[in-house]
Amino acid sequence: MTREPSIRDLSLKSLELFQLAAHRTSLQEVAAEAGLSVSTVSHHLRTLERQLGTSLLDHTKRPMVLTPKGTAFLRNIDDALLALRKAKAEATAGAPKDASYLRLGAIEDFDSDIIPELAVRLSHAMPRCDFLYHTDQSQTLITMLRERRLDLGIASFPADQLDALVQRSLLRDPFVVVLPADREVSADDVVRGKTDLPFLRFSGDLLIARQIAAQLSRLGLSAPSRFECASDRTLMAMVAAGAGWTITTPMLFSRGRRFHDQVRLHPFPGKTFARTLSIAATPDCALAVLDLVDTTLRTLIAEHTLAPMIHQAPWLTEQFRLID
Predict the structure, then answer these.
(1) Rounded to an integer, what distance in angstroms lies between the CA atom of residue 253 and that of residue 249?
(2) DSSP symbol at 303
(3) What is each CA distance from 182 to 12, 49, 242, in whole angstroms?
(4) 3-state secondary structure (DSSP) of residue 144
(5) Residue 241 neighbours by CB distance under 10 Å
(6) Does a cis peptide bond (omega within 30 degrees of 0) precede residue 63?
(7) pLDDT single digits (tens) 78-120
(8) Please, which pLDDT band fits residue 288 given cuts at 50, 70 and 90?
(9) 126, 86, 85, 135: which is closest to 107 by C-alpha?
(10) Are the beta carbons of 176 and 191 closer than 8 angstroms?
(11) CA–CA separation, 289 vs 305, rounded Å?
């Protein structure tokens, strides 16, 4: 008589690899992300299927897909694996120094000064931890957090897309106008299209571009556009060269220090608006690790960005600030 598989027969590693495989297109992707060989991943998945007595993945299809039974099995184990990870996180919540692995993602706004120093400080506070760092757009980071490919993300997150993620607001980053230093025009005239300066905008697929476009639409403004790109520093270079004007934020403006002598920073005329930069974490991320990253980030933002920018533009004092 065939014995039914008991819960102790099922390897946690096999279950985690199956969950990962369900969101990937090939064993090569799973192996690369898990840090294992393809043969090891294949062995775990085949063993799991053999123990359950059914096929979970259609190995003949490219890209790899779940079988109907695999889809049902995934639905049933997702919550269980989340509970296990959360229990493990809570068991080590008081000891970041004992953490063994942290996958951190951030938008590139933090790349120049803050992330390098954050990495150094975390490596000292978590000496046994292996770190994985990923830079991407906010929307991609949300997807990676939802799929448990990251533990923590630092970005501008739409509140209605966070679902079960834990979110902590970090920074109010107001939108501002940047003009060429050698043009004697007002920000109000430029924004209202009353000058010959064209609008240099962020690429439309970026969250920041959609935020700016929505505000201009609410105000009934339609600035003529000449140039569009994803790089904030390229936009700053174009403004510095006198090619037009742009809307950005103090956080992004601070990254283009070499252009500061060639541009002028102005408050957005009329009704101001801002984006919120936050930390988002998976529910199973250890609270002590989240606290450590949160506290360290706030210190670094205050030191590297807030203080220099407010010194340069004191009118930012109330608008550009850390969120309690």
Answers:
(1) 6
(2) I
(3) 64, 69, 8
(4) helix
(5) 12
(6) yes
(7) 877 776 766 665 554 456 777 778 889 999 998 878 999 999 9
(8) confident
(9) 135
(10) no
(11) 23
